[in-house]
């Protein structure tokens, strides 16, 4: 039987196993065998790191978090920008991958990954390796797709945390700061904040000030609400002049060491007469099983990726354009990230409900 290869690369997220299962089932009914390469791209250069997948050994994984194939997000395959300004991989490594694909008679390789892994996949494509991409990141910031699977599960995690913080914040009349993931964008903070009823949402796309947050806290007090829930994306920028390191280090380093949630909480506590606490949600957002939305999206992506291979439509990435699943050139998906539109409907609706983004008082 002809063979399809699949690997999962980069930070894990709920739904990876659903893609693996969907790929395996779809391929099986079309008469293909599936080879799962282990530990991301590493499995392509080490002959022992693969396993043959079939409907039996992938049964039950739809609902499981993580990836049965393992993943790596650093190392020799990490896409590096070369002197030419383009992402470059070691040509010897690419040759070894091409050799594996040929030797194992893989007709097409499915790379499930985020921005970095898809850039690597694009390099493979340019070297003539038959590859298709499946977009993955909890951050939902990949261009060319409305949704990445894992995002909805992360939003649920954020909303659940806010639900819990709500009751304890109200009981103790505290300000709670919840730091969520989102290195470059505020998608999780925005959607999680709306779903969990946050009062203040701080994201990289909207500059904010402490004064505006405090005005919101004060406004709530006049409405007899003596607690406030703040969600901050890890990549949100501190107000300029906010914090300078003694050793002359960068503001980003300060954020990385302390975490922006902690920085915001400590700063606020020094400015208001109220207890402030912070929580870093961290990798809880990446763990656990996928929501039903992510199960459907991941399954559709897997089935669609197999179809692209059977059509020999390589160098493409499957994507979501609701209500359809489509595909675009991988190159188009990796050249920039998709940021939250400050004038978009989610931000507008949140503002209309009185949520504060820290850019205006209250
Ligand atoms: O890219 C997804 C992401 O979840 C980011 O939001 C976060 O900064 C990063 O992964 C954390 O990755 P690591 O597992 O390397 O700490």
UniProtKB/TrEMBL annotation:
Coiled-coil regions listed in the entry: none
GO cellular component terms given for this protein: 6-phosphofructokinase complex
Sequence ranges assigned to domain Phosphofructokinase in this UniProt record: 3-309
GO molecular function: 6-phosphofructokinase activity; AMP binding; ATP binding; diphosphate-fructose-6-phosphate 1-phosphotransferase activity; fructose-6-phosphate binding; identical protein binding; metal ion binding; monosaccharide binding
Signal peptide bounds: none
Record: residues binding Mg(2+): 115
Catalytic activity: beta-D-fructose 6-phosphate + ATP = beta-D-fructose 1,6-bisphosphate + ADP + H(+)
BP term (GO), one: fructose 1,6-bisphosphate metabolic process
Pfam families on file: PFK
Cofactor(s) it depends on: Mg(2+)
Pathway assigned in UniProt: Carbohydrate degradation; glycolysis; D-glyceraldehyde 3-phosphate and glycerone phosphate from D-glucose: step 3/4
Keywords, ordered alphabetically: ATP-binding, Cytoplasm, Glycolysis, Kinase, Magnesium, Metal-binding, Nucleotide-binding, Transferase
Main location: cytoplasm
Keyword match Nucleotide-binding: yes
Location within or outside the cell: Cytoplasm
Binding site for substrate: 137-139, 174, 181-183, 234, 277, 283-286
Site residues, Important for substrate specificity: 116
Keyword field contains Metal-binding: yes
Domain of life: Bacteria
Active site: 139
Enzyme Commission identifier(s): 2.7.1.11
Binding site for ATP: 11, 74-75, 114-117
Cited function: Catalyzes the phosphorylation of D-fructose 6-phosphate to fructose 1,6-bisphosphate by ATP, the first committing step of glycolysis.
Family in the record: Belongs to the phosphofructokinase type A (PFKA) family. Mixed-substrate PFK group III subfamily.
Quaternary structure note: Homodimer or homotetramer.
Name this protein carries in UniProt: ATP-dependent 6-phosphofructokinase
Native organism: Stieleria maiorica
Gene name linked to the record: pfkA1_1
């Amino acid at each position: 039987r002809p063979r399809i290869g699949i690997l999962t690369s980069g930070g894990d997220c709920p739904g990876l196993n659903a893609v693996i299962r969907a790929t395996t089932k779809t391929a099986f009914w079309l008469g293909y065998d599936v080879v799962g390469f282990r530990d991301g791209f590493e499995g392509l250069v080490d002959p022992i790191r693969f396993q043959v997948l079939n409907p039996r050994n992938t049964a039950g994984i739809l609902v499981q978090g993580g990836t049965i194939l393992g993943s790596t997000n650093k190392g020799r395959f990490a896409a590096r920008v070369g002197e030419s300004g383009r992402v470059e991989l070691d040509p010897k490594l690419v040759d070894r991958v091409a050799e594996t694909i040929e030797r194992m008679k893989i007709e097409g390789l499915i790379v499930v990954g985020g921005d970095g892994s898809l850039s690597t996949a694009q390099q493979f494509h340019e070297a003539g390796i038959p590859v298709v991409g499946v977009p993955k990141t909890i951050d939902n910031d990949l261009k060319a797709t409305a949704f990445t699977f894992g995002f909805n599960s992360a939003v649920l995690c954020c909303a659940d945390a806010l639900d819990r913080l709500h009751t304890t914040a109200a009981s103790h009349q505290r300000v709670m700061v919840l730091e969520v993931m989102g290195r470059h964008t505020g998608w999780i903070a925005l959607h999680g904040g709306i779903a969990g009823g946050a009062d203040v949402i701080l994201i990289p796309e909207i500059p904010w000030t402490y004064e505006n947050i405090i005005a919101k806290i004060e406004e709530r007090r006049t409405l007899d609400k003596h607690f406030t829930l703040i969600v901050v994306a890890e990549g949100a920028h501190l107000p300029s002049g906010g914090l300078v390191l003694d050793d002359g280090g960068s503001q980003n380093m300060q954020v990385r060491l302390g975490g922006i949630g902690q920085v915001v909480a400590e700063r606020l506590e020094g400015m208001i007469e109220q207890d402030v606490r912070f929580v870093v949600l961290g990798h809880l957002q990446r763990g656990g099983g996928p929501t039903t939305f992510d199960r459907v999206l991941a399954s559709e992506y897997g089935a669609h990726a197999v179809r692209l291979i059977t059509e020999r439509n390589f160098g493409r990435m499957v994507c979501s354009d609701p209500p359809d699943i489509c595909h675009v050139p991988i190159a188009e998906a990796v050249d920039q990230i998709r940021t939250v539109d400050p004038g978009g409907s989610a931000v507008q609706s949140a503002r209309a409900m009185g949520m504060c983004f820290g850019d205006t008082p209250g």
